[in-house]
Amino acid sequence: MSVMIIKLFSTLPVRHKEFQRNIKKEYSKMIFVLQSYCIISTGVRITCTNQTGQGKRTTVLCTSGSNSMRDNIGAVFGPKQLQSLIPFQQISPGESIKEDYGLGEVDVPKDLFVIDGFVSQADHGVGRSATDRQFFFINKRPCDPVKASKLVNEVYHMYNRHQYPFVALNITVASDCVDVNVTPDKRQILLQEEKLLLAILKSSLMAMFETGVNKISLNHITPTSAGSEDREIGSVSEALPDDEPPKTSINLARLKEAFSNHQVPGIGSKQSSHKAACSGSSQKKMFSFVSCSKKMTDIMRPPLKSSPSFAAVSSIKKLTVCLAKYKSTFDNDAEDSEAANQISAEDDPEILHENNSESGLHPSIYETDVKAETISEPVDEKFWSYKPLVPETKSEQHQDRMSSPEAKRARYEAEPLAQNCLVDSKSKNASTQLDSPVSIQKNTVLLQFSLQELSKRMQRLQAQKKENHEQELKYRRFRAKINPGENQSAEDELKKEISKDMFKDMEIIGQFNLGFIITKLKSDLFIIDQHATDEKYNFEMLQKNTVLKGQRLIAPQSLHLPAISETVLMENLEIFRKNGFDFLVDEDAQVMERVKLVSLPTSKNWTFGPSDIEELIFMLSDSPGIMCRPSRVRQMFASRACRKSVIVGTALNTSEMKKLVLHMGEIEQPWNCPHGRPTMRHLANLDMVS
């Protein structure tokens, strides 16, 4: 059966564009999935080829159709990988491991899981530098059991802490005990009795690794029979005595439970009591305001009787008293808020208060530059103002409120009946007091208007508001202490608050203890390790610019790389050459024979080999085309950078310190040196110092 895939996502423009942009990463993921099926599919021959455009068709993966998983692993990853593999041997978990996972005798079903496969040995140099070759299967279906994968790596690190194992494990379980319909790709699974599976994996792996970790293989020359000069080379295994007591295991589950139950008392109660007090005072103020507003509403209602009475006078008195009460309540509220602000400032010294004026604006903004000329002309204008004897409707009151005095005068003059009523009311009831006509003198003021002047004033007003906004409450941006336990939080704060452009704005205060530089940025003080920062700058320059020289081998060396690794290597030959590796490439040769090593990098006492090539291939598969270095090359550069950097105890002048600070703005990661020592920490904020 042949399957051909062409023009993938061509009918979906957006997805096709995204696929083309990340095509190398997607290609690597596809190869990983194919490798999984090639390993587990016994008795089936699988061949995968790739053809780009009109180019040559190249073989990516190929298996021989063997009935053994071991043969499939050798066909995919080469015979060199088989040398370090040991078969998985399943054993029942011990009592201590059962206790770690909370398993009892009754809870453990028999023969629920059957595990078979291969794991690499725990010897140093046998594992891999990454988790790129770890394959898990449930009933021969590729999957990603996160907890099982994490456990395998943790147990392996107990015996080889610097590397990761090769893993190919198939877990056979009843189909009704597993659910694969968790995610669309069916890679995530749900298992019944997952704790039992983890306990079996842990106990089996520990037993497998402990049998080989305490043995030392030696080339020992043993003599033959007496008088004979023939010698043979054998292998001697030295193991620890069997009666040695086993290692005690710590119950991690109990420790985690103890730490998770730890709480800090007293904090929640204080916060709740403070909130209750604040809410109580605010409710009292709200109730007083609502009651006062109700009284004002009742007073402002229109009277039902036509003639004025003492009730109206008493209502006016009540309104005056209510307004006085409301004014006192408002003043008390202002005093309470002022006191609350002072208390919060004393309780939280991290907030900086700047006592600005209420308006916060400069008085010069309101000074007028245009001279106004006043003309006083007496004007005799008479208009009637009277109180109607008939109660008005709400619509008439609304019209009176919304109209101007001139409109009122015109309306009143157009109704002579109102004047007659007024005269009659005077004659009938002399005791009733009504408004009489008055004469008002108006002063007319002519103002000169300038749009340009108004624009300038608005600009000054906006600038003043912006300045006041910048001088509002300020909070501490740096909270982490200079403590090894808070290195990560301190580094996160520096990444968030300090950009590369800010280093050139830092002011050099001086040198402390012949090892540290004190700098100032606005109101913040920083301390910089002169040796660590110079070391990081030199390290990144070596990483970026150094081209390692290679030494040619006497004869080309076959690497037996899998097809995907050969493809990655051939696409990034220039990066390998900068690292000192050179290869002889024959694209017409068979898979695993297309690339041969002809040159290795050397540098004094540092030597490199095929393991560095595999590490570099893995790094380039994740980030193709990006310049990277193997870990041992980085160690060599870190050692060189440390030796050529400014040492502690060297006195520096201002220009030399400024140079080191400017260098921090030119590198990618200026926050710690290659060995992990921090380069820069926040000392104090001068606004916080009393």
From TrEMBL:
GO terms for molecular function: ATP binding; ATP hydrolysis activity; ATP-dependent DNA damage sensor activity; endonuclease activity; mismatched DNA binding. The keyword Nucleotide-binding applies. It catalyses: ATP + H2O = ADP + phosphate + H(+). It is found in: Nucleus. Residues 508-652 form the MutL C-terminal dimerisation domain. GO terms for cellular component: MutLalpha complex. Keywords: ATP-binding, Coiled coil, DNA damage, Endonuclease, Hydrolase, Nuclease, Nucleotide-binding, Nucleus. SMART domains: DNA_mis_repair, MutL_C. Its main location: nucleus. Residues 223-247, 333-362 are annotated as: Disordered. One of its GO terms (biological process) is mismatch repair. Residues 451-481 form a coiled coil. Residues 73-210 form the DNA mismatch repair protein S5 domain. Belongs to the DNA mismatch repair MutL/HexB family. This is Mismatch repair endonuclease PMS2. It comes from Cyprinus carpio carpio.
